[in-house]
Hints:
Elements (H helix, E strand, L loop, with lengths): L5 E3 L6 E4 L41 H8 L3 H12 L4 H12 L3 H15 L1
Helix pairs in contact: 2-4, 3-4
Amino acid sequence: MxxxxxxxxxxxxxxxxRLSVAGLASDGHDHYGDGMAAHRVxxxxxxxxxxxxxxxxxxxPSIEKTYGRPVQEWIDLVxxxxxxxxxxxxxxxxxxxxxxxxxxxxxxxAYVRKALG
Length: 117
């Protein structure tokens, strides 16, 4: 599979995973079978009870609207950075390199850290 392809959730119509080069071997082939890195964190879907998201995920609709990119892209960037950098280093990077506000950057990093355990 090529990078940049989206898989769409039929129930919500939202992208459920962003296929990225991170999941491909150096020869460009997908040896995992799904195009994804082993430690990938999926973006949350809408709450099952139909309410509003809680915690860091409550920022995600605003993040998508403000920066014009799906929250999954931000999550993928953060997952890769958290392998080698601390929480606040990644927050600072999102702010300086991508112009993200502190609250938005912190929400994405906090969500990913919690998902990774």
